[in-house]
Hints:
Structural class: alpha/beta
Number of helices: 11
Number of strands: 10
CATH superfamily of the largest domain: P-loop containing nucleotide triphosphate hydrolases
Amino acid sequence: MTPPVLRLEGLSRSFGGVFAVRDVSLSVPSGQTRGLIGPNGAGKSTLFNLVAGLLRPDAGVVDLGGDEVTRLPAHRRAASGVAIVFQGARVFPGLTTLENVMVGAHTQVRHGFLAAAIRSRRCRREERDVRSSALAALERVGLTEWADVPATSLPLGQQRRTQLARALCARPRLLLLDEPAAGLRGAERSALAEVIEGLRGEGLTMMLVEHDVGFVSRLADRVTVLDLGAVIAEGTPAEVRRDPAVVAAYLGPEAVDAVAGGEGEPDARGA
C-alpha cells in the first residue's frame, strides 16, 4: 500500500504553556488538495510551520511519503520534496521574474562553488536545465510573457504567482500554500485559483491554509478545521461548512440554530 504523501500523528506544540497545536493527526494521500481552515488563533500557522520544518513539535510525528522527518530542519525537508509559498509577496529585488523562479531550483543543483567559478561543463548543463525548468514553471502559472521583467515591477497578483512558480521549480511532492490569496483583489484571486485548480488537475499534492472558506471550498478535495489548536472537523468542503462545530467556532453557538433552522449557510469568510 502506498503511504500518504503527508502524515501527521499526535502533533503538539505549545508556547509558554499554552497549546497552539494539540494532538493533531491527519493524512494527505497523493494527488489530494487538503484545505486547512479555522478562526483566528486556531493554530493554522503553527501547524503549517511544523509541517514545513520551521518549528519543532513538542510531541508527535511528521511523516513524508513513509519517511519520518519530525526532527529535520526546513532545508532538509525542502530537499525531501517540500516546497512553500509563504503569505505575502516575497520576490528578490534586482532579479527578473525568470531569475526569481530559477532560485527555486537550488535543491536540484549538484555542482559546487569551484565548478561554478570555472564554469565547468556540469555547471553549464545544470544552468541550462534550471532555466528550462523555470520557463516551464512560468508557463504553468501563466507568466511566460513576463519572464524578463523585473519581478518587483509586477502587480501583487503576478508576484504571488511568481512565488508559486518558484516553488514549482523545485519539483515538489508536497506544496504548502500559506494564505496565497491574502491581499489579492477579485480578478487576481480568480487568476490564482485557476492556476491552483490546474495544479490540482495535474495531481500535485497540496496543503492550502486560508482564511477565506469560499476560496478553500473551490479548491480543496477535503478540509481539516482547527479551533484552539485541535481538529474539530474534517470532510469535504460541503460537509465541513454544515458542521455545527465549525459554524459555532466561526460565528458562535447561536449561529448553529440559525443554520439548523434553514436561515442559510453562514459566511465564514475572513476568519
